[in-house]
Design a protein that fits this description.
Length: 344
């Protein structure tokens, strides 16, 4: 049964490792591919990215499949979480075979980070290899097709969107062909996720008609957001990350195209986007369980759905965010500001 999550792509699992309290407000999320790996692509558009092994996904290069993708807090320091995932995969003989023995493998684990340093109070509290191992172990222990926790978990633990709390969201869609397309997003943007005139989430405006918050509610929310922005000025470094997955059979070049179109979904839900101090990065995974279809334009439906599920995942991540009390007062959540504003 579909759960409207990245795990609706058969065989894909998601695990979170979350650290809060005692100066911590960060974590790591691992997307674990099925046994045998998945074709992957990436598109980096933010001006300040923090990534690992993204060059391996270039269609011109030798690596054909990956076994996991890591999304992590901790800025560039947090990329160390990928080492823990690599070690876990190596222990199971998963990776690129580089020697005569089956254990001679090098796992290729693309990773990207969001900036959340110091948001829990301790600048040095950030994910490491142990955090990555905990996240991949959580993914491996989860059942196929299981519900994915959303909000302030994993890489979304310390996420912030504009002046309000961000988080992890996920969504999926099934095409008329039977192909599944899904996304998981870590919303940690410099740009806003709400229309300043109405308070409505940009992503919900794109999806259809919405009920605008009452004017008095919006005025109170605007005041609280202005106070939050003033407390946290100057604007911090941020990044929105996404993984778009499908069970269609794609080439590396097609996967790269899917990752690129995924940025359209971010641009619908966050404004402005892809700034110099964002590190916006989208990965794509294709498990190859279903035939894409005939003709040069068969990919179009998958691309369109990829952008749509990214936008929906952004909305869900913002709505699922819970209050986070940091040493400087924390950030309000969308639900605490506009809980009564619902889609029609």
């Amino acid at each position: 049964m579909a759960v409207d999550a990245l795990t609706d792509v058969a065989g894909v699992r998601v695990g979170h490792a979350t650290r809060t309290g005692g100066g911590w407000l960060t974590g790591t999320t691992v997307v674990l591919a099925p046994e045998g790996g998945a074709v992957a692509g990436v598109d980096v558009r933010g001006g300040g990215p923090g990534t690992k092994e993204t060059d391996a996904l270039d269609p011109r290069n030798v690596v054909q499949k990956v076994d996991a993708i890591v999304l992590t807090g901790g800025s560039a320091y947090g990329l160390d979480a990928a080492s823990g995932v690599m070690a876990w995969l190596e222990e199971r003989g998963r990776g690129v075979r580089v020697g005569p023995d089956p254990s001679h493998v090098v796992p290729v684990v693309p990773a990207a980070c969001v900036f959340d340093l110091g948001r829990g109070g301790d600048f040095r509290a950030r994910p490491d290899a142990a955090t990555g191992r905990a996240a991949v172990e959580a993914a491996a222990a989860s059942a196929v097709g299981s519900v994915v926790p959303e909000g302030c978990v994993g890489a979304g633990t310390g996420a912030v969107a504009g002046a309000m709390k961000g988080g992890v969201g996920t969504a999926s869609a099934v095409l008329p062909s039977g192909i599944t397309v899904a996304a998981l997003v870590v919303v940690n943007a410099i740009g806003a996720v709400t229309d300043p005139e109405t308070g409505v989430l940009y992503g919900e405006l794109f999806q259809g008609r919405v009920r605008c918050p009452e004017e008095r509610v919006h005025e109170v929310a605007r005041r609280r957001l202005a106070e939050s922005a003033a407390r946290h000025a100057p604007p911090p470094l941020n990044t929105t990350l996404a993984v778009v997955a499908t069970d269609a059979e794609l080439t590396k070049a097609q996967a790269q195209k899917l990752a690129g179109v995924g940025h359209d979904g971010i641009a619908r839900g966050v404004r402005p986007v892809h700034l110099l101090n964002d590190g916006d990065t989208v990965f794509a995974l294709a498990t190859g369980a279903r035939d894409l279809g005939d003709g040069p334009l068969a990919l179009n439906e998958v691309l369109a759905a990829g952008a749509d599920v990214v936008t929906r995942a952004i909305v869900r991540g913002i709505r699922a965010a819970a209050p986070a009390e940091g040493v400087d007062g924390g950030w309000p959540t969308y639900e605490s500001l506009y809980g009564g504003a619902q889609r029609l």
